[in-house]
Amino acid sequence: MNWSLSIGTIGGTSIRLHWSFLLFLLWIGRALWTQGGPGAALGGVAFFALLFACVVLHEFGHILAARRFGVRTPEILLLPIGGVSRLERIPEPPREELLIALAGPAVSLSIGLALVLALGGLPAFDEALSEPGAALAARLAWANLFLGAFNLIPAFPMDGGRVLRALLATRLGYARSTRIAAGAGQLVALLFGVAGLMTGNVVLMLIAPFVYVAAGSEAGVAQLRSATLGLVVADVAMTDLERLPADAPVSAAADALIRTDQRDFPAVDGQGRLRGVLTRDGIVKALRRGGPDALVNEAMQAGVPALSPRHGAEVAVRLLQQGAPAVAVEDADGGFVGLVTWDNLLEHMLVARAWGLSEDRTPRAEGRVPLTARHGGGRARA
Ligand code: ZN
Predict the structure, then answer these.
(1) What one-character-per-residue DSSP string does 200-238 give?
(2) Which pLDDT tens digit goes with each residue over 214-229?
(3) Residue 92 annotated among the catalytic residues of the structure
(4) Which of 15, 152, 294, 335 is least enclosed, having the fewest CB within 10 Å?
């Protein structure tokens, strides 16, 4: 998630470039330079600058469709296979997700068709048109048609995966539909990989592992989302925690690390307020650098976001996804109550799955029948 570079903000949406996009541009630029000299490299750069603009337009297709349904998009990430819009939330009704997913490819296909009309017909893919402007337009037409068609492949992480999930979700439920679309994504990735190896196509070889991992993580996030829907932070937080005084030496933290099976330690001040979180890695690093006399408040991670026990658990998941080391739970007076971490969310998911509560219900239905009701309220209520 942090392997990217921000290049600007349009209408409240920050546009970020993934490192692999930059790598791809460099690779193309270098290849063109060695093949055709600086002129070819310059033409290539102009083409990719315009293609890049088309990818942004594709993403704004998704963003504007999402805005119609009241969903904001804080960020888009540009990858060699297209862009990923980080919607603030995925809309619950499948019909809305379907329309948002289709809006991007619709923009790409429209740009492609408009260029084809302007050129008076679809030029052959590698036709050397005498006029450089027309050649550029022809390549852009092809690229946009490809971008639209590629993204309609019914598999995660392509837009078509979302279309497939939305179409299946009305009948099979959200979790199962996501698994099917993610499984299709991993299958497509394997096919890309095999095709790349057989034809020596570097782009396919680069894309294959990315598609595989992205499809898997989509399934993971969907499972987590499914397991936490309808829950509040108090339902998923760890409250039975060993706390460390912020002014204690790190040796005390090392002691607690060995004594307990806890990995993240809340550091609190004299009034019981959270000052930061000391992780296992943080303890080891502090011992190595400053020895046992280093202080907890020098080694801890400060600025841990805090939520009230009544916040939706989804908010905590989102904060962790954005890179927070942990999410603190605080009572109305700012007193520390508990922590939410990836580890304990995973445990929660395992429990929820074992109880068969997270499977195959649409988010809307899960919202109506919160898991909390079946927990008997005995868990971690602050
Ligand atoms: Zn898209």
Answers:
(1) T-HHHHHHHHHHHHHHHHHHHHHHHHHHHTT-BHHHH-B
(2) 888 777 777 777 777 7
(3) no
(4) 335
Catalytic residue among 59, 96, 97, 314: 59
The 10s digit of each residue's pLDDT in 274-293 is 899 998 888 888 888 888 78
Two structure tokens written together for 257? 């690390």
Nearest CA-CA partner of 47 in 116, 132, 156, 107? 132
Question: Please, what is the end-to-end C-alpha distance for the chain in angstroms?
Answer: 32
Q: How many CB atoms lie within 10 A of CB 86?
A: 16
- 298-351 pLDDT per residue, tens: 889 888 888 999 888 888 887 887 778 889 999 888 889 999 988 888 888 777
Q: Separation of 124 CA from ligand 1 center, angstroms?
A: 26
Residue 344 CA to ligand 1 center (angstroms) comes to 33
Q: How many residues does the chain have?
A: 382
Helices 313-321 and 202-228, axial angle in degrees (round to 10): 150
Contact 155, 188 (CB under 8 A): yes
Strand order in the sheet with 13-18: 4-10, 13-18, 75-79, 82-86
Residue 62 CA, ligand 1 centroid: distance in Å = 7
* Collapsed DSSP state (helix, strand, coil) of residue 50: helix
